[in-house]
Amino acid sequence: MKKLALHWQILIGMFTGILFGLLMTQLEWGDTFIRNWIKPFGTIFINVLKLIAVPLILASLIKGVSDLKDISKLSKMGGRTIGTYVLTTVIAVSIGLLVVNIVKPGAAISEETRQELIDSYKRDASGKIADAQKQKDAGPLQALEDLVPSNIFSAASDNRNMLQVIFFAIFFGIGLILIPEAKAKPVKDFFDGFNDVILKMIDLIMLAAPYGVFALLAALVVESPSADLFAALGMYAISVVIGLLIMVGIYVLFVWIFTKRSPAFFINGISPAQLLAFSTSSSAATLPVTMERVEEHLGVEREVTSFVLPIGATINMDGTSLYQAVAAVFIAQAFGMDLSLGAQLGIIATATLASIGSAAVPGAGMVMLVIVLAQAGIPEAGLALIFAVDRPLDMCRTTVNVTGDAAVSMLVAKSVDKLGNPKVKDWDDHYTKSA
């Protein structure tokens, strides 16, 4: 295993997990065996990644902000980061609307199939609708209010509160900049060492990555709904995947044009993080690996990765936004609705804003989709139409989210002259030494 590059090890783990899951579904006791003896290892793998997400954000952001040594540099980098993230999100939503209007996947849904899907997933849909209603009932400044934690320890205890952790880390880093350097040095030295420890933990965790994704994919196969439902939603899934592939192409094009780095360089550098994102469906769980890959293999300096990537894992959900646009129009088509240009422009605005508030955890995009549907006047019960294929599509859109984070970090690094050569050219050497 150690002679293979990491991305090949993860790919082997994914495919063998799928094959093993398919084999187990043919056995009477197979489903129970995977749920009881295989899936727990996948859950443990995700939990270990999530375990270090908050410490990593605290250590890397505090270090990154304090290393700037100038508030104006922070403002410059922050403005470019947020601006680029918003731009790519608008592009993603627009691509989603373009694809779904060309393919028209909802037109193929019959009344019988529509009712079957609604009946099968009515309970799941009602839960997401209830969660979304709580967000819609909140005041217009609720998002701003939720940004500031009342207790950092409470905020750090839940990965859904990443924005609050980021707020504290940036605030703490600014405080370090503003006090005398002699007093700040011991604190900075502590976080430097703390950050190095977290990065070493990432190396150790990645030793188990192929086995973790094997367990996750095997469990996914045995928990998937029937083939008939997948067939009914095939065109919808294809539409989402086409849009996501186009978005990846946009990222590669941006990197090539603005940083002069080849598409092969970018994809090879970020591919292990992409595969991990696909397996876990969580940007937060993938964040430690994303940061390691972008810094060590794409040449982005830590000063940029420690600031841009944690923010991106929280507010940059291009894949989720694209999916929301496709899903909203698909549901409208399934119900025979003809959305006006104004309604679709509203979807662009709502999906962009909703992605910023979407938690970096599996399935969070489904809750935000309810808000998008309500804005466009689309029946919220239609949410049940897409539950059958949401899990595999969640895996795909999380991959795009992570790819977008990496691309934007390279663009920002280039704009502030912080893009250099990769520190690690051969992952195998780095990987085996970590063992």
Would you identify the regions where 5 or more consecutive residues have pLDDT less than 50?
Answer: 359-363, 427-435
> Major beta sheet, specifics?
none
Q: Give the overall form.
A: globular
User: How many individual β-strands?
Assistant: 0
Q: What is the quaternary state of this protein?
A: single chain
Instruction: Name the beta content range.
Output: under 5%
What is the helix tally?
A: 20
How confident overall, as mean pLDDT?
80
What CATH calls the topology is: Proton glutamate symport protein
The residue fraction in helices comes out at over 70%
Q: End-to-end distance, in Å?
A: 12 Å
Top-tier CATH class: Mainly Alpha
The count of domains is 1
Radius of gyration: 22 Å
Per CATH, the superfamily is Sodium:dicarboxylate symporter
Secondary-structure element series:
HHHHHHHHHHHHHHHHHHHH
Question: Could you give a quick summary of the protein structure above?
Answer:
The protein is mainly α.
